[in-house]
Design goal:
With about 290 residues, this protein is α/β, with parallel strands linked by helices. The chain is built from ten helices and eleven strands.
Amino acid sequence: MSEKHIKFQVDYSKLKVVNEYNTKNQRYPLVLSVPHSGTFFPTEFLENIAVNENELRSNEDPFVDELVAEASDLGIPMISLNVGRAFIDVNRDAIEIDPAMFFNYPDTDITPNNKRCRVGLGLFHRITAERKNIYDGLLDYDEAQERIKNVYNVYHKSLQKMIDKTIKNFGFCLVLDCHSMPSKICNIMQDNRQIEFCLGTLFEQSCPTEIVEFMTHFLEQKYNVSIDCPYSGAYISFNYCQPRKNVYTLQMEINRSIYEDETVYKKTSNFQYVSTDICNAITGLANFLLDFKK
């Protein structure tokens, strides 16, 4: 990476950060979080990067918000980020920053030696999923702080507000954090059959076993389901999991190849079929949760 200084300012007044669906008529103690399906990038950002917008798509979880939309419409609130993940990753801790990406990173800030930062996929992605450098120079740390303030914090405030509302109305809450995973990872994890769904439980720490078993058994009627492999959960799962306050989390990863052509980021003819199966699983889980705490 060159030593060029990249400086720009985003007009956040024109940016719709979060989409909120079905938050007023909630019927179940379940909240859907979709942090990586956003496709919008500020113009100022696009004018100052070294890759094109289509190349940024490889960092996203394509169409996951659409995959679960029908379940949300039945009375399950969904918080979805509208901004592309390559701009800022809301499924990271706000301190997961690589100091080497900035020309003016403050000497007083202490950042942990984080694995995601080392591979270029921290709070601010340094590379695409195809390992191309997103920037051809060093970023302005002050501009990065504006991203945190105007995008990252907005998403998490919306999600926390919905969790608090759910606790107030139902006494407990499950956050289902919805993602997709590249097929090449799913294929190498098992020799005999590719993983189609992965449920992340923070290695049995994020939610009661009964909830995981219900979701697993429902999906296993048609799909190959793995627990905590290749993903056990990330920041959202960890940050919002508070069993003492009756808040639980479960991460759901969907193999992209079962609904998308990964080479061109287009839906396949199986999309609606897979969406229906996922939504049936989610609504089944939602009804299970109504009786879970009784």
